[in-house]
Amino acid sequence: MNSPETEPLRRQNVTRYITPLREGGSLPALAEADDGFKYVVKFRGAGHGTKALIAELIGGEIARRLGLRVPELVFLDIDERFGITEPDEEVQDLLKASRGLNLGLHFLSGALTLDPYVNPVDPMTASLIVWLDAFLTNVDRTVKNTNMLVWHGTETWLIDHGASLYFHHSWSPWEKAALTPFPYIKDHALLHKASRLNEADAAAREKITPAVIESIVAMIPDDWLQWEGAPGSPDELRRVYRDFLVTRLHNSEIFLKQAIDGRNAII
Asked: Which of 23, 38, 51, 75 has the most CB atoms lying inside 10 A of its own CB?
């Protein structure tokens, strides 16, 4: 479920809508696919549309390459007949708007929300997670909403990277956004435990190379890159995502310093 190699995502069909997960603003859901497994489905018809799915895909796969635990990501198809018997009108509208290719995260049955002040997270893992979120400009891993789970006792699992890469909501100027120190890192749920940030930066730069970024960005489906008003072709948009991430990687000292300074201010 958490192999470090970059592999194509499996593609399955959603066969059963189980229940909405109303904790999130985008109304994800628990559903079953034709492989018999349950998934938390992120819908293309919700919230920020396919941009959130792109952020989820890139964020999850980069986290996996860092050796962090992430539920398996799977492409999930929803056909035009799915959900027609759903009694909730809001849910039925969402399913209609999400026909086609969506994204699912393998459901971690029995997992609990991680409490950053109660559950143990070792300093290197915490530092890698802080590095990841500063790199991705992820604003949504705070004490109020950690987007981390504890599974199988003490294992820390990362979920929900949909708020990452917020530059793509305005898109321009992405070059400036790529060099942001990301001041929101001061609110990160694990910053107080991230005592090995310099080591995490060195380790991450070994694992997340431009070639790795290229391979992950190449996984974005064409039809996720054709939103209304998209400023280019799918290949052109992939190039921007790649260049944004490579620029941040080559200038990691900018957000690393911000994270270190933010941690020094709270300890």
From this structure: 51
Half-sphere exposure of 156 (CA within 13 A, CB side): 22
Nearest to 255 by CA among 206, 191, 182, 153: 182
Token pair for 198? 């310099």
> Which band of pLDDT confidence, cut at 50, 70 and 90, is reported for residue 87?
confident
Nearest CA among 191, 195, 203, 185 for reference residue 254: 185
Contact predicate 225/218, CB 8 Å: no
Residues 6+ apart with CB under 8 A from 164: 55, 56, 58, 59, 133, 136, 137, 138, 140
State how far the alpha carbon of 200 is from the alpha carbons of 152, 194, 260, in Å. 25, 9, 12
Q: What is the pTM of this model?
A: 0.94
User: Which amino acid makes up residue 59?
Assistant: G
On whether the CB atoms of residues 82 and 32 are closer than 8 A, the answer is no
Task: Tell me the Ramachandran region of residue 133: left when phi exceeds 0, alpha when psi lies from -120 to 50, beta otherwise.
Answer: alpha
